[in-house]
Amino acid sequence: MFKITKIEGNKRYFAKLMKGFTKQAQQLKIGLLGGGQLGRMLIQNAINYNLSIYALDPDKQAPCKHLVQKFSVGALTDYDTVYEFGKDKDLITIEIENVNIEALKQLEKEGKTVYPQPQVIELIQDKGLQKMFYQRNNIPSADFFLVEKKSQIQKYADFFPFFQKLRKGGYDGKGVVKLVNPEQLDKAFEAPSVLERLVPFEKELSVIVARNANGETKCFPVVECEFNPQANLVEFLFAPANIKKSIEKEALRIATLIAEKLNIVGLLAVELFLTTDGKVLVNEIAPRPHNSGHHTIEANITSQFEQHWRAILNLPLGDPAIVKPGVMINLLGDFGYEGIARYEGLEDVMKFSGVYVHLYGKEKTKPFRKMGHVTIVENDILKAKQKARLVKSLLKVVS
Ligand SMILES: Nc1ncnc2c1ncn2[C@@H]1O[C@H](COP(=O)(O)OP(=O)(O)O)[C@@H](O)[C@H]1O
Ligand SMILES: [Mg+2]
């Protein structure tokens, strides 16, 4: 059987692009792995360019369900499911990194374009490989050790306090545990993991960088994230971050360096620590749109979702500059409520100017489930912060 090589496949894909954007837009079948809220916001921008999106998600009620050409239900980590889904697509992309890499590699071999590239997703799926990558490339990050099982942690008794992180499968704080002394070892994970030195930080920062196949890169301005310690989710995001110029410069330098060293095509979110002694260290990275970029829909000239399509279609990247300062709050399921979601206080917050509510189309709420987000834009970031606290006190997801 004739096998299309990767180069031929890419040529065919770029030939389609050359035929003119409108025609290409109608011709390309774009497969999206994951059909959650990130996919939903990607689709909002895909509409502007006549892009045809097909999505795969394990949840038959996923937020993208009604918004795509065709919605398929299946496991993103299963080889056959991902391979079959990708077989008739031209371009495959992701909104979640926990996907079957072998299937993506095979699809790439058969001429499909997969952005971000499977090797990049593979590296990012494993926090151990991520740490080794930072070390190899002189990218500042906290010291670490790799362990295969819990009993090996004893060896690093001198190393306390640290964070133990599962190498694979963690998200939103699940898969991360803080271990302060050997007495806390019963809390430790019994799985291959990274032991990372505890970083005393002043702030958690984030930069989203985009890179297209031409090698053009553009960074969104640095933002500042405040986490809810209970839920381990972003509670408030402030854009731009209140940091010195030199810190901003360093954060953007690191994000661009990582994107270039990875050769990524697509978006890369870079989570950073600003340490109490003024250093910028990488925490972790994600190869897709990110919670720390939601405000860009209203607060920046180009949103992260628009930028993702531009990057993976090898179009000129948009201007990421800020139009107005913004604050983003996640709308999480309120504690003590489980069932069909109701949004209390919605009308109250909609009376305010510059308050943009985004609901994710999830029928059921449970404590801390990400049900939506709200962006508040103002000429003055202090006013935006005040309004955000008010919105947070008024708007609740209950059942
Ligand atoms: N080495 C560290 N020192 C201090 N805090 C950390 C460290 N690693 C992680 N954290 C805290 O835990 C949170 C979650 O860790 P992270 O590695 O980003 O996992 P996740 O994949 O769940 O987002 C971080 O946002 C930060 O608040
Ligand atoms: Mg994180």
Provide a count of the helices: 12
Number of domains: 3
| Global Rg | 21 Å
CATH-defined superfamily of the largest domain = ATP-grasp fold, B domain
CATH topology of the largest domain: D-amino Acid Aminotransferase, Chain A, domain 1
Low-confidence stretches: 1-8
Proportion of strand residues: 25-35%
Shape: globular
Quickly give the CATH architecture of the largest domain: 2-Layer Sandwich
Which ligands occur here? Answer: adenosine-5'-diphosphate, magnesium ion
What structural category do the secondary elements indicate? alpha+beta
What is the CA–CA distance across the termini?
56 Å
Helix content: 25-40%
Average pLDDT across residues?
Answer: 93
Secondary structure tally: strands: 22
> What kind of sheet is the major sheet?
9 strands, antiparallel
At the first level of CATH, the class of the largest domain is: Alpha Beta
Q: What would your notes on this structure say?
A:
This protein is α+β, with helices and mostly antiparallel strands. The protein folds into three domains: 6-114, Rossmann fold (3-Layer(aba) Sandwich), CATH 3.40.50; 143-197, Dna Ligase, domain 1; 201-398, ATP-grasp fold, B domain (D-amino Acid Aminotransferase, Chain A, domain 1), CATH 3.30.470. Helices cover 29% and strands 28% of the residues. The chain contains twelve helices and 22 strands. The chain has helices at residues 6-18, 21-27, 37-46, 79-86, 101-109, 118-125, 127-136, 245-262, 296-299, 304-312, 346-350, 381-394, and strands spanning 29-33, 52-57, 70-73, 91-94, 113-114, 144-147, 162-166, 176-179, 193-197, 201-211, 217-219, 223-228, 233-239, 266-275, 280-286, 326-332, 339-340, 342-344, 355-359, 364-365, 370-377, 396-398. Strands 10, 11, 12, 13, 14, 15, 16, 19 and 21 form a nine-stranded antiparallel beta sheet that branches. A five-stranded parallel beta sheet has the order 3-2-1-4-5, with helices on both faces. Helix 3 crosses helix 10 (304-312) and helix 5 packs antiparallel against helix 6. The N and C termini lie far apart (56 Å). Mean pLDDT is 93; it is low at 1-8. Bound molecules: adenosine-5'-diphosphate and magnesium ion. The site of magnesium ion (MG) has 2 residues, from loops.
